[in-house]
Amino acid sequence: xxxxxxxxxxxxxxxxxxxxxxxxxxxxxxxxxxxxxxxxxxxxxxxxxxxxxxxxxxxxxxxxxxxxxxxxxxxxxxxxxxxxxxxxxxxxxxxxxxxxxxxxxxxxxxxxxxxxxxxxxxxxxxxxxxxxxxxxxxxxxxxxxxxxxxxxxxxxxxxxxxxxxxxxxxxxxxxxxxxxxxxxxxxxxxxxxxxxxxxxxxxxxxxxxxxxxxxxxx
Length: 218
Ligand code: SF4
Ligand code: SF4
Known about the structure:
The protein is mostly helical. It has helices at residues 2-5, 27-41, 57-60, 64-67, 71-75, 103-106, 144-169, 173-178, 193-207.
C-alpha cells in the first residue's frame, strides 16, 4: 500500500499508512491494531507505537524464532529432516530467526495453530521482502548454515549433560538415599554409583555460595 500512496499520504484522520502484515494477516492482530488506533483517537488510550515501516511495534518487534516453541531444539542443535518431525525446522526452510511475526504466541485463529506451532516452516509472509526474498520455499536459508552448525557443535556437548541432570532431577531425594525408584512404569529401578557421584558433584556446585549442606540432595 505504501508503494501506491507514498510517504506523504495522510488519511482524513491525519494518520500515516498503518501496516498489519501477513498473508493473510492474523485477524486478532488486525482488530487489536484498529482498536488501539480508535482508542487513541477517542482520547482514552496512549498513542500506539509503530515502527519505521508503520507496523504495530508491540506486535511485530520480535522475531518468530524468539518466541518459537521449537527454539529449544535449535539451541540444542537438533533439526527436523522432514515435515512432521518435532525438532527445529530451519533446515527444511524456516526463516524464523530473521522474520518479525508473533504467530507463535498469538496463533492463527483464537490463539490456536499457526505455522511452526503445527509443523510449518516460516516463509516470511509478514516481511516486505516476501515472497521474492524468501524463495525457493522450504530450502534452508543460506545464513542458517553458520548458526545451525554452531548449534550442532555446542549442542552435541550440552545435550548429554542436560540429559544427565534431567535424569537426576527426576528422582526424589529419598530414592537417592535408598537407591530404589519405586515405580511400576518401567523407570530404572536402581540408583547407580555413577548417579550418586553425579548427584554429589552437581549438588556441591548448585549450592556453592548459597550456604546449607553442600553434599545433600534436594
Ligand atoms: S522452527 Fe524456525 S522459528 Fe522455530 S526455532 Fe526453528 S528456526 Fe527458529
Ligand atoms: S510464515 Fe512466518 S511470517 Fe508468515 S505467519 Fe508463519 S511464522 Fe509468521
